[in-house]
Write a structure and sequence with these properties.
Chains D, E: Its main location: membrane. The complex is a heteropentamer, with two copies of chain A (279 residues), one copy of chain C (300 residues) and two copies of chain D (287 residues). Helix content of chain C is 45%, strand content 19%. Chain C has 300 residues and is α/β, with parallel strands linked by helices. In chain C, the strands form two sheets. Chain C has a six-stranded mixed beta sheet, sandwiched between helices. A five-stranded mixed beta sheet of chain C has the order 7-6-8-5-9, with helices on both faces. With 287 residues, chain D is mostly helical. Chain D contains twelve helices and no strands. The two termini of chain D are 34 Å apart. The chains are: A alpha/beta (279), C alpha/beta (300), D mainly alpha (287). Chains in contact: A-B, A-D, A-E, B-D, B-E, C-D, C-E, D-E. The interface between D and E is large, with 74 and 74 residues. The complex binds adenosine-5'-triphosphate (ATP) (2 copies) and magnesium ion (2 copies). One magnesium ion binds next to helix 1 of chain A.
Amino acid sequence: MQTKIQIEAAGKIYTDGKHNVEALRAVNLDIAANEFVTLVGASGCGKSTLLRCIGGLEELSLGEIRVDGRPVSGPGVNRAMVFQHYSLYPWLTVMENIKFSRRLKVHREGITSSDVETASGRADALLSLMGLNHAALAYPDQLSGGMQQRVAIARALLPKPDILLLDEPFGALDAQTREVMHDLILHIFNLEKTTNVFVTHDVEEAIYLGQRVVLMAPRPGRIDTIYEVPLPAERDQDMKLSPEFIRLKKEILQRIRETSGMRTDKDMLDRLTRQTEPG
Amino acid sequence: MQTKIQIEAAGKIYTDGKHNVEALRAVNLDIAANEFVTLVGASGCGKSTLLRCIGGLEELSLGEIRVDGRPVSGPGVNRAMVFQHYSLYPWLTVMENIKFSRRLKVHREGITSSDVETASGRADALLSLMGLNHAALAYPDQLSGGMQQRVAIARALLPKPDILLLDEPFGALDAQTREVMHDLILHIFNLEKTTNVFVTHDVEEAIYLGQRVVLMAPRPGRIDTIYEVPLPAERDQDMKLSPEFIRLKKEILQRIRETSGMRTDKDMLDRLTRQTEPG
Amino acid sequence: EIKVGLSDWPGWVAWYVAEQQGYFKKYGADVKLVWFANYTDSISALSAGQLDANSQTWSDTLAPLAKGIPLKVVLVNDNSAGNDALMVGPNIKRFADLKGKTIALEEFSVSHFLLVTALHKNGMSLKDVKVVNLAAGDAAAAFLSGRVDAAVVWNPWVNKIQISGKGHALFTSKEIPGLIPDLLVAQEKSLVAHRKDFIGMIKAWYDTEKFIREQPGVAAKIMAKVVSMPPEEYRVFLSGTKFFDQNGNLQAFGPASDPTSLLGVAPTIAKFLLENKLMEGKVDYAKGLDGSLVKEVARR
Amino acid sequence: MPTTERSLSKSTMPSAAVMPVAVQRKRRFWTIRGRLSRKEYLVLAALGMVLPFVGWWWLASSGLMDKVFMPSPLDVITRIHRWFMEDNLMGDASISIYRVTAGFILSAMFALPLGLMIGTYRPVQAMLEPLLDFIRYMPAVAFIPLVMIWVGIDEGSKIAIIFIGTFFQMVLMVAEDVRRVPLAQIEAAQTMGARRGEIVSLVILQSAKPALLDTLRITMGWAWTYLVVAELVAANSGLGYAILKAQRFLQTDKIFAGIILIGLIGLVTDQLFRLVHRKSFPWLYRK
Amino acid sequence: MPTTERSLSKSTMPSAAVMPVAVQRKRRFWTIRGRLSRKEYLVLAALGMVLPFVGWWWLASSGLMDKVFMPSPLDVITRIHRWFMEDNLMGDASISIYRVTAGFILSAMFALPLGLMIGTYRPVQAMLEPLLDFIRYMPAVAFIPLVMIWVGIDEGSKIAIIFIGTFFQMVLMVAEDVRRVPLAQIEAAQTMGARRGEIVSLVILQSAKPALLDTLRITMGWAWTYLVVAELVAANSGLGYAILKAQRFLQTDKIFAGIILIGLIGLVTDQLFRLVHRKSFPWLYRK
Ligand SMILES: Nc1ncnc2c1ncn2[C@@H]1O[C@H](COP(=O)(O)OP(=O)(O)OP(=O)(O)O)[C@@H](O)[C@H]1O
Ligand SMILES: Nc1ncnc2c1ncn2[C@@H]1O[C@H](COP(=O)(O)OP(=O)(O)OP(=O)(O)O)[C@@H](O)[C@H]1O
Ligand SMILES: [Mg+2]
Ligand SMILES: [Mg+2]
């Protein structure tokens, strides 16, 4: 398989003059083309930082990230990002939001009229793929959270990116809507053949979506373990109840608890267990 | 068992002059003393509204809610509430936040010096129960989300309320921290013998915590089904993998999907399933 | 076209009579009158070269002259002859009664100058009274509302106070003839460039003076309209203003030996300014005067 | 127990079809963050406007104060009427509106791009913000002679004074508005390949627009407060000029008239701005 | 490939103990929402303050403008020195500071409780806000004769003008600050049994404090801009009075001196307010 993203000895240090925070230390990871990788880990372990570095929104302090062999030096149209919050434009309709990238110069250069038609067709196709046909003229504030995130994904997909970077895109949705979105995102992944890097807090989500689950650990932010998900390529909701799934979920959760710096929370649990057991 | 909270034909209509929203219609529910009831349901089905009406923060338009036989006519010290967000006071230390209610007149009336001592001792006890001893002098912004919610719970518990009303208190926490909080809240429930009404989006959480799960449906907001949870009173994390648990979770999720007005999301899933099945 | 600034003083408001009677046109003077609500600003405007000429007093012309700004007095409109007055309450009868009293006036204006002179003439000095700095209109208001014991103001306020019955004049500019000349002062370079217009203005002024003398009723009506006052009230001001005709002007531009000429009164005024640190250095008074226009008009 | 209500709701329960009109329970007026209906709001607002006038009218007619110092509302209305009939009120009002609007627009023309730069680029902010913070303390009145020297005494000078009074505060507020644009919106555009200029024009400016319009509404008020100062400079018409003239002759009724007229014009502008805001940015008003 | 960096990081990987100092990659200065180090910020801010002075100095010495209309920085400094030595600069400055502070404090004393009421109780808001919106357009200068008549000509009158200039804007801003207190904080107190007064004093006021201090800082600037207007009324000392006197005799250097001194005093106050803010509300500054 062809390597799409190469992360080599990546390090990132945030500094505000006085304090340094080592958000990433010596991260090495190769991601293949059309692979679906999910990133999990305790809060503050650098998941978002790593994703933003791949996306070119942050610069590495050390090491290098290459996409298709070329070092990342800023955001690029081949890498689309979807965030948890606020990234839709409230002054544009759903359709205008989805077509936003077509107003940018980089997508207007050297295109022929047939390209325009194709792109226009693509916007419509995405709209109906997302089940948003009836909402094309609505404004984001008129949509539910799940619909808003579907618009954000459609907007990111319009310029046919190779890579889709998602930072807790479903974090604010309720459990039911989230399940729908899971199947949708897998469907799109199969259709568009993108390479997906997906950050989440939800281990179940990470296993259900990912082909590999990358577990990161904090202080300094680093890769702790990489798990291959032992599920068939085609996923369905019932798999969540399969023994492999449950075993892996338990294993990952356990490991996150161990690696997390959240001593107090962990101690707490231990203490409670001790208290309740004899009582 | 003694009935603590009686909700009788409760109705609530929000109006802004032009539009009416029927947030609750003909809700009937009796909650026993020292019962743990969880409320689930699709977004907008009136869970928060019902909780706020019990808490006295909103007034019913129709019907009545009685606590210990007396109609609710406003917030009262016997009913404590915990919200998802922003309710800690950032200008007070953890200890000052916990002791906040002691600065209020209602808690100062007719207390003897021994009462003061007991209350003071209670604050310390809550602090250590929550595993926050080392953080007594910290400010909320210096704490993780999980710690902040523990402070909020301790603060609500200080004046020994009979009833604890919780509105998605762990909605903003990550999965790992949330699990710790679940065991903590159960521990407190057993210790303090409060009557808990707990609103959540997370069906797993609802089953794990509740003795009864009340499923609400939207438009108009109403009670759809009430499930008795077939688990022993003492819960532990492994039960989540038990067949009864999984069966109930599936059943409730299925029912939420059916009752939810989120046609588009449901249709979406159906459509995807159809697409992927033959493909 | 020349821009001429003016503000609210009867001798200057009279320029509107000239405008409405068509005297400017008659003498080929292309004049645009620019009204200033705040007299002080009109002085700055002239010094800054934004005006070709301005209506201002001799005392206010000396400071810019001392700074080397090339200004020339070309015409004397009038002398105050009762229009500036020290107004006092009913229980002040003599100057001696003023001791320790508060007097409202606009600092460093002719009012200030009038008070200094009046006190001096009665064997007192500024040290004997308490001065409160207020613009003329505000000074009158402060006096009428009983906030001060006395006020030095000019008309229309002198009249307003008299009508109200709350005060009377203890000292007026009538008693110091020549010391408060109201002038038309021009920028030197405008004078060179537009001499014809200024000549026309001077001629128009003489006609105006004659018109006011002969038809005070009509004149008062025109002037009253400008400041939105009832014409009857305005007539009173005319008598407190000694409008200068050609002879008056010739005399004012006369030699220093004449104590009522501009050169004659200049040292007295300069002394006042220097003592109050409002002017720095010496002024060659003669350089600030250009009587040639008045003389040229007279020659014909 | 409120039996009527219970029976009402009980009767609807079985059919669950028709909902009875909500019975209003006791509504506490004096509630923290209580809600008001539109009608209640309007009544109270009208009351708030009318009561001070009644108080004034009472004070004026009580004879406690001299008429010269405290004209009655009737005097003022008469004066406004006379002003309108005889003294060209419309002329005064229009020239003043022109001056304020011109000064305001000029100020906005510079403040918007500059504030946009300051709010967008940190180096620009570092260079200009302390300087502006320094200048914003300076009294506009003090600039009158300088304005006259540099700008002249024509309309330009009045507009310049209003400009000076408004501009510096406006820049600082615009910069703040721009800084409040959510970073996520900017980053979303960056990941779609937007260039700097495109981000500024297609995202930052669009996103800040509602806040900017509000800033313009607020600074419009400041522009009006500088009118009298502006019309000190060689003006012979305008509401401010009329007030100044009235001050000279202690025509308190005219001072009142002028002040109230300015307030009214302001109130109308304010409401217009709010209307445009509601119409232009409906998503801010939808629940 | 940046080999040095790779080798650096590679060498640390095995031990994972010592972290090498971060190698700064190319830093684009002209980045949207870019970050600046404290040092860069200070240098740019200083530059921003100094450059206009250099420009001024150049303009003044170029001879393009008459010295009377454009004094050089040196003239102004000389003037300030002389003012200090001969003309009691300290006296002028202190009386002006006193007036501004007194007017400002008076304004705050009324604006804070009133704004608190408006922001807390909707009926109060409905009654007062439209009225205040109406008054805030009125020019303070127009009130001079009224103030003189009603308040007199003593210090009170100057303080009153500053009060009028500041108060109305301040109330509206305070009300807005109070409205921004998160409802959840208020409801939390309600469920703990807090009464109305307790909620206002223990929650709303405390929660709004940081915003209120910022509002005070901003309105302090407005108070200063009214100084000259205030010192039109029966003053014979003060910075504004000195500027007015200088205007009369076209002492441009003194006008400049006065304006700059006011700006400097303002800048110092502003920084003091910011310092107090940082010290009093540390949680707003912690990351
Ligand atoms: N702009 C920044 N400046 C300084 N420190 C930062 C910045 N962004 C992130 N950090 C720090 O870097 C570390 C990693 O942050 P990051 O946001 O990547 O974690 P995360 O794994 O995404 O956490 P979460 O699960 O809470 O989103 C944290 O300690 C965080 O405080
Ligand atoms: N203050 C309000 N004014 C008007 N309508 C309201 C108000 N609060 C809630 N509603 C409406 O009442 C209905 C029920 O809202 P509620 O917040 O109780 O739902 P919920 O079940 O808590 O939803 P969620 O899961 O999203 O928190 C919704 O349609 C909502 O729009
Ligand atoms: Mg993150
Ligand atoms: Mg809710």
